Request: fold
Amino acid sequence: MRTLLRLSLAVAVVAAVGIGIVGCTEEEDASRIVVDITNLNSNSPLFSDVFNQNNTPTNPDDDFIPIDVVPVTFQARPHDSALTLSPNGPFGSVRFTKYRVEFTDGIHSGGADLDGDGTLDLKNFDAPMNLVVDVNDEATAFILIIGGGVKSVSPLSDLRSGGEYDANARLTFFGQEETSGDHLTLNRGLTIRIANFGDTKK
Reply:
């Protein structure tokens, strides 16, 4: 009887330990942080200027082609209010290492054809970033949307004499919870208007 009792207790202990190990593993592998994008370009459309006379239209020496770099702010919080997480502890931060810009025109998968001639004028691209967002905190990065080179050639350069193009972009941010290694992917849309917006004369 004692042997059977001891054997039963041993089996129960092993089973309990096994359950505890499995439960702990699942909990450790679960993503603990939720990250939201709280601000992208002040939550406004991007008005992309193709040429800037630097408020001195009579002096061409200080004219330049603007580069569109916009701020994006991330805010991190525990996915469960019952969790107590700290920035310096386990599951306390998310690191974003890459973002993707996809221009959409409803036709092409590789970018946007603004003037309808069959050539992509704004091409999709990936770019690196390095931003750490601590739990219960926020952090801001600055990302490139449209570079100056594409504005120096047709059809965007043609907008210097007037006109406007409409474009939409889908932004994807790739991050990783630093302790668990869980991957996070965030998406946000951005409305873009491209024109030679007027410079203020001094």
Q: What stands out?
A: Helices lie at 2-29. The chain is about 15% helix and 45% strand.
